[in-house]
Amino acid sequence: MRIRRLLVANRGEIAARVVRTCSRLGIESVLAASDADLDSLPARLADRVVRLGPAPAAQSYLDPAAVVRAARSVGADAVHPGYGFLSENPALARACADAGIVFVGPTVESLQAVGDKLTARSHAVAAGLPVVPGGEAGDLASARAVAAEVGYPLLVKAVGGGGGRGMKLVRSAGELPRTLDLAVSEAAAAFGDPRVYLERYVASGRHVEVQVLGDGTRAVALGDRDCSVQRRYQKLFEEAPAPLLPAGVHAEMAAAALALATHLRYRGLGTVELLYDRERRTSYFLEMNARIQVEHPVTEMVTGLDLVAEQLAVAEGLPLRIRQEDVVVTGHAVECRVNAEDWAHDFRPSPGRIDRVVLPVGDGIRVDTHVQGGSVVPPHYDSLLAKLVVHGRDRADALARARAALDLLRIDGVTTTVPVHRALLDDPEFAAGGVDTAFFERFLRTRHPDLVEVS
Amino acid sequence: MDLTPDDVRDVLRVLDSSGLDELHLELADLTLTVRREGATGWTAEQQVLRRPVVESGAAVAAEPERPRAAVPEGMVAVHPPLVGTFYRAPQPGAPPFVEVGDGVGEDTVVGIVETMKMMTPVHAGVRGTVVEVRAGNGELTGTDAVLLVVDPARDATGPVEGSR
């Protein structure tokens, strides 16, 4: 079915991003906005705006019934959920299907298959992917059996957790009973799901991921990304392709991602997240994200594709327009996430009114943002203001150009993380490439101890 | 509609060959200023003027402006450290951090403020006894909102609970 009117059920920079592709493709865009966002930049860019609900996300962006109501009221034939909020929620996909509206995302079955960590892990195993050694721990006896195989140290992970929540380190066999008990009761309280599983603890790992696109029959891998620069499991900087991997690893990771997408008969845009063990020089499946990702522009820069356009095409039921042999990765792209946070005060959030926005422009430079002079950044949602995306001939060129572009970028009125990116781009270890996920916190502690608040 | 990044790059190419350092465009729906920065850099400052076309029936509920509420003479108001959603308890269903009549110290945590998905503890900032809880659980509070009122004259006797 041809999409003529698309409801964008999200906010912030991704809403503006989806609206932009709609206007390029001649699709009418209707933004579903909460009361806090009715006069936002995405609302001004969209063809029309429909009220979704009150400012708190639970009553607007997180309410599947409100989204379907909004879509019906404007006669939208499809809903784009963006990322976060309801993007991976089977309830919205199902409600859209029941209402005869296209959900721009995978099937309910795929969302369920990858939404639960243990189910996702078993699908990955079935598809032949390497997973971090480990397994489910229903009770102490089975936990001891799994631990005997993977060895110590190991991690106890809540099935319902994620984003660093619900994870505990066990250093030795003596700690296992107590930590397991604690993990189960905390998981039940925090996630409403007491299930936990054990995994080998990878001392130095990198977060790498493969972009995939499927039409339900066929899938293509669109290169990889490295997102290892993180603070408390929140990504700050991403790049494509993942730098300094041994020969063959890019191809291995792409093959693994394709095997999973094919096994799931995946339709839509998705990301297969992998943990690259720097010591063992091998990668393991972590999870699959069944949506467009914040960092998708680095892939767009190096492949020349518009991933939202491809996502809409497969949602319309069209077969893939890209053959694997057509996917060529050119140069290197990096993305700096500019957040409304005060990094000198423990990354404290800084909502408020934006006075002025000046952005770098030029070949190979792209800024995805949802703010301009006069915009209000509400306290209800995340702190992402803008993504500076820079494409270079190679990694060194991309980093140098990003450094120059950062100096030209001004977002006045709130405190932003621009200074942290300047310091990061000046750091020799980071410039060398291939840092692990522990790098950034170490960088803050050792190179910039003055900027880490004692807490 | 706004100008696409491709449009802006087209403007840049024209400017680059013209030797001009700055161009200011005013269209019905937007203004754009492109400036040369140093030898090779360019910046753009764009303002989309178009008003959102909001479907009828959509009432814009403006956040009510709350005047800085007064507290009785001698009492101390506890304000949130930053704008956000105030929570009285560490998690849903858990008992509140403090109730009326509880003793507090400067460092006693009396609530949590959620701002941009990040949690910040609210400290009493004063030693005394809670005499009033004004902000409701889940209420959006500005930095001048009164969360609770503490009577510093009624110092809690003995060790203050929750001091950390």
TrEMBL record, chain A:
Pfam families: Biotin_carb_C, Biotin_carb_N, CPSase_L_D2. GO terms for molecular function: ATP binding; biotin carboxylase activity; metal ion binding. It catalyses: N(6)-biotinyl-L-lysyl-[protein] + hydrogencarbonate + ATP = N(6)-carboxybiotinyl-L-lysyl-[protein] + ADP + phosphate + H(+). This is biotin carboxylase. Its EC number is 6.3.4.14. Keywords: ATP-binding, Ligase, Nucleotide-binding. It is an enzyme of class 6 (ligase). InterPro entries: ACC_Biotin_Carboxylase, ATP-grasp, BC-like_N, Biotin_carboxylation_dom, Biotin_COase_C, CPAse_ATP-bd, PreATP-grasp_dom_sf, Rudment_hybrid_motif. This protein is a component of the acetyl coenzyme A carboxylase complex; first, biotin carboxylase catalyzes the carboxylation of the carrier protein and then the transcarboxylase transfers the carboxyl group to form malonyl-CoA. Residues 121-316 form the ATP-grasp domain. It comes from the Bacteria.
Automatic annotation (TrEMBL), chain B:
GO terms for cellular component: acetyl-CoA carboxylase complex. GO terms for biological process: fatty acid biosynthetic process. Residues 75-151 form the Lipoyl-binding domain. Pathway: Lipid metabolism; fatty acid biosynthesis. CDD domains: biotinyl_domain. Keywords: Biotin, Fatty acid biosynthesis, Fatty acid metabolism, Lipid biosynthesis, Lipid metabolism. The keyword Membrane does not apply. GO terms for molecular function: acetyl-CoA carboxylase activity. This protein is a component of the acetyl coenzyme A carboxylase complex; first, biotin carboxylase catalyzes the carboxylation of the carrier protein and then the transcarboxylase transfers the carboxyl group to form malonyl-CoA. This is Biotin carboxyl carrier protein of acetyl-CoA carboxylase. It comes from Geodermatophilus tzadiensis.
